[in-house]
Structures are given as C-alpha cells and as structure tokens.
UniProtKB/TrEMBL annotation:
The active site is at C12. It is an enzyme of class 1 (oxidoreductase). It catalyses: L-methionyl-[protein] + [thioredoxin]-disulfide + H2O = L-methionyl-(S)-S-oxide-[protein] + [thioredoxin]-dithiol; [thioredoxin]-disulfide + L-methionine + H2O = L-methionine (S)-S-oxide + [thioredoxin]-dithiol. InterPro entries: Met_Sox_Rdtase_MsrA_dom. Belongs to the MsrA Met sulfoxide reductase family. Its EC number is 1.8.4.11. Coiled coil: none annotated. The lineage of its organism: Bacteria, Bacillati, Bacillota, Bacilli, Lactobacillales. Residues 5-156 form the Peptide methionine sulphoxide reductase MsrA domain. Has an important function as a repair enzyme for proteins that have been inactivated by oxidation. Catalyzes the reversible oxidation-reduction of methionine sulfoxide in proteins to methionine. NCBIfam families: msrA. Keywords: Oxidoreductase. This is Peptide methionine sulfoxide reductase MsrA. Pfam families: PMSR.
Length: 174
C-alpha cells in the first residue's frame, strides 16, 4: 500500500484536520508546526511568533485512492486564500496560509491549482497563499490532536466564532 505526505497551513490547525480526515485514502492527519527555526517547538513558543513556525497539518495518504490534486482542492476550500496575514480570527505569521510541497510534482500541482483558482474569478482579490518547500514537521501536543473529535463543542463554536465556517459557506458551498 503506497503512502505519501502532504503539509498544509491554513490558520488554526484544529480546523484543518476534519475536512481531510473524513476522506477515503487518508491514513492520518496530524496537527503540528513547520516552517520555522526552533527545534521541537511548543504551542506557547509558536504562539509567541518568535519561532518562525506556522500551525499546519501533515496528512499521510494513499495516492492510489486520493490524489495530491484532490487534497489541494480540499485545502483551498478550508481557507481564505486572499489573506496572507493569518486566517479568520487567527492573525500573524503562525497562522499564515501555506502549501508546503514535498517534491517537484507537488509543487507543480499546487502552482497550477493556485493559478486556476486565481483565474476562476471566485475572488476579487489576488490569491496570496504561499507555496514553499516542506521543512521539518513537528507534531503538536497530544491535546491538539483530533480536536474536532475530542472537544467537538468547543471546536464547532470556534469554527463558527472565528468566521471560518461562515466564510466557507459563503465562498465555497455554492
């Protein structure tokens, strides 16, 4: 059975797990940190903005069941790709939207998908999500894992209260 990884940052990592976790071919979705300079950062360190890391999810998937292109499409539909300075209520570099590619094929798929989204006219503003090479991914603390399951009431309230759920309904559920 084949196995590949994808890393996406799209604001609070709690909100980035469920959309991927429920798809066929997904083996595991881990909340964590990547893109910075601190080794094994903690949530408090990343939240300080001093580590250079962003909250992200690392997805382990079976490419024979689900393609990277499908994962990228799912990613776009969880984010505001026109906001480079965070996502929804979460502001700052640790919440910036980034597609972290593992190899040249992933980079090409992500770039083509970004261009297609820009040319679609769905958004009036430019698509500013970064596409960067993957760096070391550090899993977050256990209490952040599968948050939508372990703390569903708080997760649902946060998704609505942050503005993410409303944005998705308005911009993606058409």
């Amino acid at each position: 059975m084949a196995e590949e990884k994808a890393i996406f940052a799209g604001g609070c990592f709690w909100c980035m797990v469920k959309p991927f976790d429920s798809q066929p071919g997904i083996k595991k979705v881990v909340s964590g940190y990547t893109g910075g300079h601190t080794v094994n950062p903690t949530y408090q360190e990343v939240s300080s903005g001093l580590t250079g890391h962003t909250e992200a999810v690392e997805i382990t998937y079976d490419p024979d069941v689900i393609g990277y292109d499908q994962l990228v499409e799912t990613y776009w539909q969880q984010t505001d790709p026109t906001d480079a300075f965070g996502q929804f209520a979460d502001r700052g570099d640790s919440y910036r939207p980034v597609i972290f590619y593992q190899n040249e094929d992933q980079r090409e798929i992500a770039e083509a998908s970004k261009e297609k989204l820009q040319n679609s006219g769905r958004f009036k503003e430019p698509i500013v999500t970064k596409i960067e090479p993957a760096q070391t991914f550090y899993p977050a603390e256990d209490y952040h894992q599968d948050y939508y399951r372990t703390n569903s009431a708080h997760y649902n309230a946060y998704s609505e209260g942050s503005g993410r759920a409303g944005f998705i309904r308005q911009n993606w559920k058409k």
